[in-house]
UniProtKB/TrEMBL annotation:
Signal peptide extent: none
Its biological purpose: Catalyzes the oxidation of uric acid to 5-hydroxyisourate, which is further processed to form (S)-allantoin.
Protein name: Uricase
Protein family membership: Belongs to the uricase family.
Main EC class the enzyme belongs to: oxidoreductase
């Protein structure tokens, strides 16, 4: 057990659409979000499955397929188990499938599954009673989507989740006013003009890890963190903060997420700067301007905000309040 070399194989682009999965309701309410749950009428994802284990070595070195689970069978395995999953989250479903793989094939050491949610939006339709939400028709969303990774390994006492993260990807947000970027190093390489108010367009990927992975499963919805709520926090903090840079913005979003969800250990950001290029600075009798898409290359930021950061910020705020009082 405990494969040390890099060796795995699997199947990507495994599309799973399960209808009428268990709804997810009863998540904790937070001020930044009106999200109350997912009906899971369509529980959809694009998965990537990897099987790991020393037993697979001879399939590479000797062409011995006697222990090979065909990747085509892996796809079937996951799809069949989608019909058996009784929970309401991708995290729970991936864990269930990983565990069933290990149970079924005793020579597998570990299974890793990553997946991107395939989201569908509800639509309003004309009914006899007027316009209301259809319970039959859904519109494929082209917006941000949840992601999750689960890896379960065989141990002496059964199985253990050795990797788990959840997230939201491809969130694209524009703030038309209230963002600046100035005060950076000015030297012979600097051509960027300082901006007191720029149209800040950002691409964001946010991922989070729980202190206790069982909270990620959604069995206790009050302890589950929904990607929709994290998205809504990011939007609210972007709205509220007169930001001085993307660096400052993502740190503040991270602090807010950790504040709202004490069950999380840390939050990881990948951001991309897509600030619109200004074409018409002044339009007479209007506060509007004209912009176009920026040209490459694009700036990026990467940051992990931890519970330690939140603790430091709280202490600093408490000290500042104390000093003002005295
Ligand atoms: O938010 C920003 N951070 C930077 O570090 C940077 N650098 C740059 O050219 N534009 C920006 N914007």
């Amino acid at each position: 057990m405990g494969t040390t070399r890099t060796m795995y194989y699997g199947k990507g682009d495994v599309y799973v659409f399960r209808t009428y999965a268990q709804p997810l309701y009863g998540v904790k309410e937070i001020p930044e979000s009106g999200f109350t749950g997912r009906n899971n009428v369509i529980f959809g994802m694009n998965a990537n499955i990897s099987l790991k284990g020393d037993a697979f070595l001879t399939s590479f070195t000797k062409g011995d397929n006697s222990l090979v689970v065909a990747t085509d069978s892996m796809k079937n395995f996951m799809l069949q188990h989608a019909g058996q999953y009784e929970g309401s989250t991708m995290e729970g479903f991936l864990t269930f499938v990983c565990e069933r793989f290990l149970e079924t094939y005793s020579h597998i050491d570990a299974v890793e599954i990553k997946c991107d949610e395939i989201t569908f939006d509800s639509v309003q339709v004309a009914k006899e009673s007027g316009l209301s939400e259809s319970e039959l028709v859904y519109r494929r969303s082209r917006n941000e989507y949840g992601i999750t990774t689960v890896e379960v390994a065989r141990t002496e006492n059964g199985t253990e989740i050795i990797k788990q993260s959840s997230g939201i990807s491809d969130l694209q947000l524009i703030k038309v006013s209230g963002s600046s970027f100035y005060g950076y190093i000015q030297d012979e390489y600097t051509t960027l003009p300082e901006a007191k108010d720029r149209p800040l367009f950002i691409y964001l990927n946010i991922a989070w890890r729980y202190n206790d992975v069982t909270d990620a499963m959604g069995i206790d919805p009050l302890r589950y963190v929904a990607a929709e709520q994290v998205r809504d926090i990011a939007q609210s903090v972007f709205h509220q903060l007169e930001n001085r840079s993307i660096q400052q913005l993502i740190y503040q979003i991270g602090l807010r997420i950790l504040e709202r969800f004490p069950q999380l250990a840390d939050v990881e950001f990948e951001s991309n700067n897509r600030t619109w290029e200004t074409i018409v600075e002044m339009i007479p009798k209007s506060k509007g301007q004209v912009f176009t898409e920026p040209r490459p290359p694009y700036g990026f930021q990467k940051l992990i905000v931890t519970r330690e950061d939140l603790k430091k910020e709280r202490n600093a705020a408490a000290n500042a309040a104390y000093t003002t009082k005295v």
